[in-house]
Write a structure and sequence with these properties.
Elements: H1 13-19, H2 30-33, E1 44-49, H3 57-63, H4 76-81, E2 84-89, H5 92-100, E3 106-110, H6 115-118, E4 123-132, E5 136-141, H7 146-149, E6 154-156, H8 161-172, E7 182-184, H9 187-195, E8 203-207, H10 210-218, E9 222-227, E10 236-242, H11 243-246, H12 251-270, H13 275-285, H14 291-300, E11 301-303, H15 307-315, H16 317-333, E12 343-345, E13 352-354, H17 357-364
Parallel strand pairs: 1-2, 1-3, 4-13, 6-7, 6-8, 12-13
Antiparallel strand pairs: 3-10, 4-10, 4-11, 5-8, 5-9
Helix pairs in contact: 3-12, 9-10, 12-13, 12-17, 13-14, 15-17
Length: 370
């Protein structure tokens, strides 16, 4: 599920301005973007993240002194846990590659995209960060009903969260996805085509901020036919750590620190005095969106803002027995993975394990800071 937004830059300055998308990578990370990813030293841990609302939390955490992204420097929570965390903001595909090659110790990734790297590297999901609740949508012009969409081409990123949302939502609407052609198109290009009223582009499947910008540009001419609210908690954004990393000295402290950092920033978002400021800071990391747009974004990309919320998801039998099998089956049937990884919840041996113990630790000892 491609979460990266930086593909916009390759379409030219005019497109970037039209979509109001910016690049928030520091100069120090440019070598990383171009492929020069360096592993943190043996005593440090590396977290790779890309710009998405709940993952941008780790960029904001650096700015607020909770962690310091540079090696050899520590924020307040790094000091607390006695560890050194290096955070690298990369394009989403680069994050996956860095984690899969063991260059990164942990990665911000979706429940769909972790399946492939988990096949070669045993992985542990330590917390969910958010879920799509309207952030991914099928937008149409001149089409009033799902039945009218039948046989019409819809454009979006194949083998991604977009195609998953499209086909699963159609199933929930009692339709056969085979009757609704899905065609490959870069989401930025698809959004621009619809915004520019390009002929024959009457249905696109994209995510925020493309959804917001397309609806705003086309006004009453465009509408959301259906979105990810049809498939609650099937699209999950997460933080995953290599099982090999958790076995290292201080590996457990690394995982606990990452979890505490996430909830600390969520506390800031909920604060009457810090909330708007923190949301603006997130918007600066996520496509340079302003306060009002970000208020919409976090409604449609719901954060698991407390340990209790994350624990509830991982312990939910629907998520364990129905949702994750659906995600795995989709990836297998669409050629995204060659082999289905073994999956476990809690303890046990598996290639991909969802472990609530790190969230439990933070919740039990009240270690989240205000």
């Amino acid at each position: 599920m491609k979460r990266h937004i930086s593909i916009v830059l390759g379409l030219g300055l005019a497109l970037a301005l039209a979509l109001q998308i910016g690049c928030s990578i520091d100069r120090s990370d440019q070598a990383v973007r171009s492929g020069g990813i360096s592993t943190a030293s043996k005593g440090a841990f590396m977290l790779a993240w890309s710009e998405y609302p709940s993952w941008s939390v780790f960029g904001v955490a650096h700015e607020n002194g909770l962690i310091d992204k540079a090696e050899g420097k520590r924020g307040t929570l790094e000091e607390k846990w006695g560890i050194d965390i290096v955070t690298k903001q990369l394009d989403y595909d680069a994050c996956i590659s860095a984690y899969g090659s063991s260059t990164a110790d942990a990665v911000c990734i979706t429940n769909m995209d972790i399946l492939a790297p988990a096949g070669g590297r045993n992985s542990v999901v330590i917390l969910p960060t958010s879920t799509s609740d309207g952030a991914d949508a099928c937008i149409v012009t001149g089409i009033d009903t799902v039945d009218a969409l039948k046989g019409q081409k819809s454009y979006g990123l194949e083998k991604s969260v977009s195609q998953y949302m499209f086909e699963r939502s159609l199933e929930e609407l009692g339709q056969n996805p085979a009757d609704f052609p899905f065609r490959q198109m870069d989401p930025a290009a698809a959004a621009t085509a619809m915004q520019g009223k390009q002929a024959n582009i009457n249905s696109i499947v994209v995510w925020n901020p493309f959804v917001m910008q397309t609806l705003r540009t086309r006004g009453d001419e465009a509408k959301v036919l259906f979105d990810s609210t049809k498939i609650p908690e099937e699209i999950i954004d997460m933080v995953v750590v290599g099982d090999d990393v958790l076995q290292r000295p201080d590996g457990q402290s690394f995982a606990h620190c990452i979890v505490e950092v996430f909830y600390a920033v969520n506390r800031m978002l909920e604060s009457p005095t810090q909330g708007d400021k923190t949301l603006v800071a997130l918007g600066e990391k996520f496509s340079n969106l302003g306060l009002e747009d970000m208020k919409v974004v976090v409604q449609q990309t719901k954060f698991y803002e407390t340990p209790e919320a994350g624990i509830e998801l991982f312990s939910n039998s629907e998520f364990q027995l129905a949702i994750m099998p659906k995600v795995v089956d989709f990836c297998a049937s669409h050629g995204i993975i060659e082999n289905k990884p073994s999956i476990a919840f809690g303890t046990g041996e598996a290639q991909l394990r969802f472990d609530s113990s790190y969230m439990n630790k933070i919740a039990d000892v009240s270690q989240v800071v205000d």
